[in-house]
Amino acid sequence: MDLDAAWTAFDSVAARDRGVRIVDQFAADPDRLSRLTVEAAGLTIDLSKQSWTREGMEAALGLAHGAEIEAARARLFGGEAVNFTEGRAVLHAALRARPGADYRALGEPVSREVKAVRKAMADYARAVRSGDEAGATGKPFRTVVHVGIGGSDLGPRLVWDALAPRTPDIEVRFVANIDRAEMDQTLTGLDPETTLVIVVSKTFTTQETLANAELARRWLAAALPVDGLDRHFIGVTAAPQLAERFACGRTFAFRDWVGGRYSLWSAVGLSCAIGLGPELFQRMLDGAADMDAHFRDAPLERNAPVLMAAAEIWNVNGLGRSARTVAPYAHRLRRLAAFLQQLEMESNGKRIRDDGSPVPRQTCPVVFGEPGTNGQHAFFQQLHQGPETVPADFVVVARDEEDRPQPALWANALAQAEALMMGKSLKAARDELIAAGHAPAEADRLAPHKTFPGNRPSTAILMERLTPETLGALIALYEHKVFVEGVIWRINSFDQWGVELGKAMARTILGEIESGQSRPHDPSTTALIDRLSE
Ligand SMILES: O=P(O)(O)OC[C@H]1O[C@](O)(CO)[C@@H](O)[C@@H]1O
């Protein structure tokens, strides 16, 4: 069945199944739980609380077949130009491949270079950690200030928060925002003599990062001898010739086949390799490589990224759901939603297909979230009783870093998922009110407010512990899910032209503000420029 025919079949099953109750599906289909629970690279992924019937799930998987996911996947891992608007390969998997891999980008072998950069990173990280690589005055580095934004920030931040020791030998701090407040706050209490600044920018043209790099360099230069200043200033980029202008003491490079939001596995992860140690960083790569192997080898109906993409498409295109929430029940995963916002929305927030025609349907949902249980006390009200259904991903970690079980977290995550699915009927709400001593009229008045429609879907992702391996696997799981969705929607998940227009206009407006000569804008923008420039 081709993709168009698969969409037709999908639409008709979705129209038929729109009203089904999730909970009824367990009885209707006794294999549902086992069929929709997948073990992959140390993660357990349970998609049985999704809104689909068995036929719905098969129709969604039919899209993966119709889109020839296996062939697309082979093109991805084969280093073909799957980033078809920029003519680039997309090979983040090559960055975490096990020894012996032979990846090629547009036919050019890359694995040897990957290995060499990985070794250079590990050697440098070890030298910084041991003090062999020290600052201008001979003191060992105690802090890394990682300067970067978007994909050059969010992944390393997530990883550091997730895996940092409680009292690190070398602390990693991050600066992304062009607002001076972040740099000021980050540098507060730091000693330039023991601070290593790592400027991370794929393009080395990003306004925020260059401005912050300049600030950090000035801060270092004000306190350190000129001779040796460059030891404190390291570049990570795919444009080493531009980094040279900043006189970085050392530059670690990566290639244009590494997308910004897929780059944490490359030298972009250098700060984490230093702060966590290269061995731990390598373990994260290994976990991601295990998920790559699962994605490459598992049959589609047992393939976690494929099933998660199918569930998303069922929700978005089958049932018209335009948002999804991510609730990691682990404080250390508190940056997961921020990371996924970029990964998913910058990758798939698009509407034009490979042939230039518009996608005739919705694509990426709005992705948002907070760590559980915090989110429960904020926006979960709307998830339970708002008029719209918002599917949820619950990420649950069984044991913490001290090997302590976390039953209160499990209970909350499982209760939320069950409550979203089961809801509470008007009658049950009324009976409870009567049992609590309310008069019948009062129970009638209050019961509608205490009713939960239920039938709201979720996916559970469980891991025994949050380790470098499971973190790597979790991130890679979402990366591949995004890829599968992009192939089904026939969009390019690997460009981001949508961020360019605003960037160019900001440059224009800044020039106008600085020169005091503003060109005509719409009346609102003109008035706001004038108001701010008063
Ligand atoms: O690494 P760079 O080139 O500084 O870009 C930072 C981020 O900016 C973006 O291009 C979006 O503006 C992201 O895709 C990227 O991760």
Automatic annotation (TrEMBL):
SUPFAM superfamilies: SIS domain. Its EC number is 5.3.1.9. GO terms for cellular component: cytosol. Its main location: cytoplasm. Residues 515-527 have a biased composition (Polar residues). It is found in: Cytoplasm. Residues 514-534 are annotated as: Disordered. GO terms for biological process: gluconeogenesis; glucose 6-phosphate metabolic process; glycolytic process. The active site is at 346 (proton donor), 377, 503. Keywords: Cytoplasm, Gluconeogenesis, Glycolysis, Isomerase. GO terms for molecular function: carbohydrate derivative binding; glucose-6-phosphate isomerase activity; monosaccharide binding. Belongs to the GPI family. This is Glucose-6-phosphate isomerase. It comes from Brevundimonas abyssalis TAR-001. The gene is pgi.
